[in-house]
Write a structure and sequence with these properties.
Largest sheet of chain A: none
Radius of gyration of chain A: 21 Å
Number of domains of chain A: 1
Strand order of the largest sheet of chain B: 6-7-8-3-11-12
CATH topology of one domain in chain B: Rossmann fold
Strand content of chain A: under 5%
Structural class of chain A: mainly alpha
Distance between the termini of chain A: 57 Å
Largest sheet of chain B: 6 strands, mixed
Oligomer: heterodimer
Number of strands of chain A: 0
Number of strands of chain B: 12
Order of helices and strands of chain B: EEEHEEHEHHHHEHEHEEEEHH
Low-confidence stretches of chain B: 1-9
Chain lengths: 260, 280
């Protein structure tokens, strides 16, 4: 019966949201209570931060370049190509840097967390850890969340900087404009509220990436096929949530810090 | 027994000799959104006792072990482990209790990203024991399972039998008060199975640790009952004809229910048709 299917699907969704809320809350509380596994935190910070640096650097650089290419053509119609630097820096720092970095890191790390933890679940390694008296939430989940939040902030700064340099490369070498003017525009019209907007978003994105990746990994069922399913669910859910939360945050932050 | 009987108050009986059991299941019932996996299950494990849990595949033997450790929660009933009511404890409260026990999983469940040394020393590393002491205790545990040479190897480099032996070393390193073996010989060749059973026997006879061993291999169960580990010669020897280890007894499950609880002699002379068919 179709109504039964809808009923069951609705219950599954509500149950998943409830499970995720409890999981995410427990992971958050664990950040502030001992025991803490600092070596695991450092290992994960290396995997998430250093490991993702190359893709974030490249995607940031080319996004900045594309922004400069697209905007300069439009701005030229109003004789305003001089403000390309301002446009690129504000767009990268307030919006594209945090969102693109979040999505790139979600694709790389939410998937790896889901598949790694999922494999541990199906081979009973998580049960073995519990049987040995170690809390997998504290040992595996909390270090991943803490390291992703912190490293995503640094990766966002890298993406922002690379985006501005990418825009500069296009503006100077392809559009033949002055580099000093570009950087002057990029710097002069940048205000603290813009920086705050750009730095608040990675806090939420980092939490979403790691908690979703770990959540789907820890609830894996159905052997190796289940691991693949969890990986896909983790990447899709994390990416959609990052964009959705970015929308909400932008609305809130624009209310708190109206554009000058 | 009717299903309504599961709702009767579940409590472990007071021991007649004053010695509390290491494990006590009382009217335990569990299901996973369907028919009961285990129903109305009651049994105890006394200090120094080895209980061999027999039964065909899929009757809930592994579920029973996970219930004993608090890795799963029963729908109804009481489970006492080392004097603690497991069903009333939170996950946080269970971690220190589980650390006092050891469990050998069906497929070993070694951490594949860690070396054999780090796998065996897992609990000691979490307890921040000094490295020198860890190395010494890991070597002792690996010597017990005769795998000292694997100290620096990774689980991926080991055969199935070696993984089980490393898993036994990991379970024994903190001298647990109870050991649970989940089909330790499952999927192994007869020679390797005998080696594993000898290790289980060595643990039983040298350290006198109470245990529950799940198996569906009757020959392994009988060997454990009819042999003892001789520390003088360093291997197992048969008990005199007609004698069996008095502390090794049998449980048998069928369709989630306990259908037998008794000694080897009672098992061999039971009239239960399922037990007889299983043994034959």
């Amino acid at each position: 019966m179709p109504s039964n299917t809808i009923d069951r699907t609705a219950k599954d969704i509500v149950f998943t949201v409830q499970e995720y809320s409890l999981f995410a809350w427990r992971a958050l509380v664990n950040l502030f209570t001992p025991p803490r596994y600092w070596p695991d935190f450092l290992v994960q910070a290396d995997i998430v931060g250093v490991g993702s640096a190359a893709i974030v650097l490249l995607s940031g650089f080319f996004t900045g370049g594309v922004l400069a290419l697209q905007s300069s053509a439009t701005l030229a119609q109003f004789g305003a190509t001089a403000v390309t630097g301002r446009f690129v820096s504000i767009t990268m720092i307030r919006e594209l840097g945090p969102v693109l970095t979040g999505i790139m890191v979600a694709g790389r790390n939410a998937s790896s967390m889901a598949s790694e933890l999922g494999s541990m679940v199906v081979t009973e390694q998580i049960d073995a850890m519990r049987a040995l008296g170690v809390d997998p939430m504290r040992k595996l989940v909390t270090p991943r969340i803490a390291s992703t939040i912190i490293m995503l902030m640094f990766l966002t700064i890298v993406a922002d900087a690379c985006g501005i340099f990418g825009g500069a490369a296009v503006t100077v070498f392809m559009n033949g404009q002055d580099a000093t003017q570009y950087f002057s525009e990029a710097y002069e019209f940048l205000h603290y509220p813009d920086i705050i907007q750009g730095m608040v978003k990675p806090l939420f994105s980092g939490y979403i990436i790691a908690s979703i990746g770990c959540f789907y990994g820890m609830r894996t069922t159905g052997g190796t096929e289940g691991v693949g399913r969890s990986t896909i669910q983790a990447v899709v859910t994390a990416s959609v949530l990052i964009i959705f939360v970015d929308f909400l945050l932008t609305q809130i932050l624009l209310t708190l810090f109206p554009p000058l | 027994m009717s299903d309504a009987s599961f709702l009767s108050p579940a409590r472990c009986p007071e021991p007649s000799d004053g010695t509390p059991p290491v494990v006590c299941f009382s009217n335990v019932y569990i299901s996973f959104l369907g028919p009961a996996v285990l129903a109305d299950l009651s049994f105890t494990v006394a200090p120094q006792e080895t209980r061999i849990l027999l039964g065909p595949a899929g009757v809930g033997k592994s579920v029973l072990l996970k219930l004993a450790m608090g890795l799963l929660r029963p729908s109804h009933g009481s489970i006492r482990l080392l004097g603690n009511e497991v069903t009333a404890m939170t996950e946080e409260e269970l971690f220190p209790l589980r650390a006092r026990t050891g469990m050998v999983f069906q497929e070993s469940a070694l951490f594949d990203s860690l070396s054999v040394r780090d796998n065996v020393a897992y609990q000691l590393i979490q307890a921040r024991v000094p490295d020198e002491e860890i190395d010494q205790r890991v070597r002792e545990a690996l010597r017990f399972v005769e795998l000292e040479r694997t100290f620096d190897m990774f689980p991926g480099d080991l055969s199935g039998g070696m993984k089980r032996r490393v898993a036994i070393a990991r379970a024994l390193i903190r001298q647990p008060e109870l050991i649970l073996y989940d089909s330790p010989t499952g999927g192994l060749d007869p020679v390797t199975s005998t080696t594993i059973i000898e290790l289980v026997m060595k643990q039983r006879d040298v350290y006198r640790t109470p245990s529950i061993m799940v198996t569906h291999r009757v020959q392994d169960a009988f060997m454990l009952c009819t042999h003892r580990f001789d520390t003088g010669v360093g291997h197992m020897v048969p008990l005199p004809k007609g004698e069996t280890d008095p502390n090794t007894t049998f449980l048998m499950l069928d369709q989630g229910r306990m259908i037998f609880d008794g000694s080897l002699h009672e098992l061999l002379h039971t009239e239960d048709p399922f037990v007889r068919e299983f043994l034959e």
